[in-house]
Design goal:
Blueprint lengths: L26 H17 L1 H13 L9 H16 L6 E2 L2 H18 L2 H27 L1 H6 L11 H18 L5 E3 L2 E4 L2 E4 L7 H18 L3 H32 L2 H11 L2 H15 L14 H9 L4 E2 L1 H26 L15 E4 L15 E9 L4 E9 L23 E6 L6 E7 L3 E11 L2 E3 L2 H14 L5 E9 L8 H11 L2 H8 L4
Antiparallel strand pairs: 1-5, 2-3, 3-4, 6-7, 7-8, 8-13, 9-10, 10-11, 11-12, 11-13
Helix pairs in contact: 1-2, 1-5, 1-13, 4-5, 4-13, 4-14, 5-12, 5-13, 7-9, 8-9, 9-10, 9-11
């Protein structure tokens, strides 16, 4: 008679179901993740709605509408391999949620919407790590990172890309013997006048191409060297192609007429142009693709073995509640600070008289600075005995919030929806910044800009953002003001700066003027 071997006791510790035993153990983590994502999107609904609004309304970011289905496809590609991994609650994932919450708080305090949006995406990524654990997060690492392309970002590239495109046009026009003159982003040829506008900067193609390039690098390449080279081409080719397109439009106008060139540009420009650029990129990269179609995306046994060595496993309920609590902290803090620091704005109907200057009616090319959401906006033209005319514009915010920001894209002397465009910087006055702007004609105007926020007066937008950040994090006087002194160039080749300097001398210290006009609380 044979004896059965003795039964050895199992090792101490919780018995976790493995992925090979089926899918039921995925149900609770996925439900927890869905509820946590719903809670985060509800808490930060205004930011999520703004992101989607920009996708839908801005041609620069309309490619973002394709990012969610691309992410779904990337997850589907890896699904059969990821199912072999073990989903667990993981407390260290809350650190990523906290980093996103901090990023949102800093963005909200500084009035930088893109920082808030990145913070929200980082919280969503942290929720995946916290609810599904390190093994699943590593298996889905690329789709998780690709979530960053959901954020509409990159508008700050518009001015430098406009300049690069204009300079490329000038170089090619001279190369082909076309007489041309450039003034900032305005180019004049004998039979036409052209502006390299924001829509012509090529920024939307560059941003979309970068998202596309990252996708191709993951799907088609294994070599990091080849990936780096492809991404370099994805950054350079759209810029060069856009410069050639802009030059081609002007050159066609030189050979025919400006009206024909505009029609030609409307045919070439848009997603047809982008499709041509993609075809060029794929043609360049195709011979160097080194990833096989059937190659696995991840190595589940190796990933699971790595994850099993990590501490931090926890139950799903506390990690989910903890993530929601972390997300609520910056919202509550911001609301408390904002309620305590708002400055009441007086109901002013006009700007004060100044010695030696009389208030007159505006003439010349229409100009208005743009400050959306300002609690007070005033503009007045002044003329002195020497015949110099200057415009004084003031915008005041009792406090700053989403849509009510002193410094932001499209705010300032150049309204993106107007005919005006930045030309170049000029010598800055004390505590201010000066530059020239141009409109078709050409009409040239010089603008001196001063910001008054907290206890400082500056012309630096960066310093405004930092001061706003400090006040909205720690509390303090929330009033923020923009004071712009501007004058048209009196004649070709003559500067408007003497008129501006004479007016500033009569105005006196800008900080004193600002505090007298809208006294701090």
């Amino acid at each position: 008679m044979s004896l059965a071997p003795p039964i050895r006791p199992a090792a101490a510790g919780p018995i976790m179901p493995r992925a090979s035993e089926g899918m039921p153990h995925w149900r609770r983590p996925l439900v927890a993740l869905a509820l946590l994502w719903a809670a985060l999107l509800l808490i930060f609904f205004s930011d999520a709605a703004k992101i989607v609004e920009l996708w839908w309304t801005s041609s620069t970011f309309e490619h973002c509408l394709l990012i969610p289905p691309i992410i779904a496809w990337l997850v589907w590609q890896r699904a059969s391999e990821v199912k072999r991994l073990e989903p667990v609650g993981w407390a260290p994932g809350l650190l990523i949620v906290a980093a996103g919450a901090l990023g949102w708080l800093l963005g909200h305090a500084a009035g930088v919407s893109v920082a808030r949006h990145y913070g929200l995406v980082l919280m969503l990524q942290g929720a995946v790590v916290a609810c599904l654990g390190p093994a699943v997060a590593r298996g889905l690492l690329f789709p998780l990172c690709y979530l960053f392309f959901l954020v509409p970002a990159g508008e700050g590239l518009v001015p430098p890309l406009q300049t690069i495109t204009a300079q490329m046009c000038m170089a090619l026009l001279h190369l082909f013997g076309v007489p041309a003159h450039i003034e900032g982003v305005f180019i004049t040829i004998p039979n036409g006048y052209f502006e390299v506008a924001e829509a012509c900067s090529g920024v939307k193609f560059l941003i979309a191409m970068l998202a596309y390039g990252v996708l191709v690098c993951n799907v088609c390449f294994k070599s990091w060297t080849r990936r780096a080279l492809f991404m370099a081409a994805a950054a350079v080719v759209p810029i060069l192609a856009n410069g050639l397109r802009a030059w081609g439009t002007i050159y066609v106008a030189h050979l025919t007429s400006a009206d024909f060139a505009v029609g030609f540009d409307h045919v070439v420009y848009g997603w047809i142009f982008f499709a041509i650029v993609i075809a060029i990129m794929m043609g360049l990269g195709w011979p160097f693709f080194d990833r096989g179609v059937t190659e696995p995306w991840i190595d589940p046994p190796a990933i699971q073995a790595w994850a099993d060595r990590l501490p931090g496993r926890t139950r799903l309920l506390p990690v989910t509640i903890g993530a929601v609590a972390i997300a609520l902290l910056p919202v509550g803090w911001s609301a408390a600070i904002a309620a305590s620091g708002r400055t009441p704005i007086p109901a002013l109907t006009g700007l004060p008289q100044l010695p030696g200057w009389r208030q007159t009616h505006e003439t010349g090319y229409f100009w208005r600075p743009r400050y959306d959401g300002a609690d007070l906006r005033l503009i007045q033209r002044y003329t002195n005995g020497a015949g110099q005319s200057v415009d004084l514009a003031v915008a005041v915010y009792g406090s700053q919030s989403e849509g009510h920001e002193l410094v932001g894209y499209g705010h300032g002397a150049v309204d993106p929806d107007s005919q005006w465009a930045w030309t170049d910087n000029t010598a800055s006055p004390p505590e201010g910044r000066a530059f020239r702007i141009s409109a078709p004609g050409p009409v040239v105007r010089e603008v001196a800009t001063f910001y008054r926020i907290g206890g400082i007066t500056t012309g630096s937008e960066t310093r405004v953002k930092l001061e706003t950040l400090k006040l909205r994090l720690l509390g303090g006087q929330q009033r923020a003001m923009a004071i712009l002194v501007s004058a048209e160039q009196p004649a070709q080749g003559r500067s408007a700066r003497p008129a501006i300097d004479a007016f500033l001398a009569a105005l006196g210290p800008v900080d004193t003027f600002a505090d007298r006009l809208v006294p701090p609380r």
